[in-house]
Sequence to fold (195 residues):
Amino acid sequence: VRTSIFKQPVAGPVQVLAEHLAGDGQADLRVHGGPDKAVYAYPHEHYAYWEQHLPAELLVPGAFGENLTTRGLLEPEVRVGDCFQIGTAVLLAVQPRRPCAKLGLRLNRPAVVREFEQAGRSGIYFRVRQPGVVQAGDAITLLERSPHAVTIQDMLACLAPGPHDLVMVRALLATPYLSLSWRERLMRLLDGAAG
Fold:
């Protein structure tokens, strides 16, 4: 199985490139990577939740395959299109993570993929607006708040079984930040509700 989900903490600066962090590319580019999944951040705050469900020895930084373990970037608060500076890199929040079976492999628990989705603690994928350098301890600064009042959590709600909030689906579709796959998924939700 080709995977890049096994992460180790890194000391010192790391280059953020257009589609990944230097030395930390995605192994399976058919379903991972690309500009809309260039950097994956997972909130440190979520680790407390997982301590109730997973063995402590598995819960090290990077346990969920994240490139960055952050503080303060929570799905209900981060808007789709919010722009952040971390180190000298500028990142744009674009979507939640949908885990694949490799998360179950990483945590030695296949059922964790479904549990991860049900927990609503997805983490956030970022597009790189400006490449740069990041390192542990860098401040996370909101540079620009998205004018679209829809959050990463709102996107997550569209992954759950329906019925869906069609006003929210339309609001998400109005943002210019969606990947083609997300735009298609949301259009299917609207089409399904109309038919």
Observations:
- Residues 54 and 186 are 32 Å apart (CA to CA).
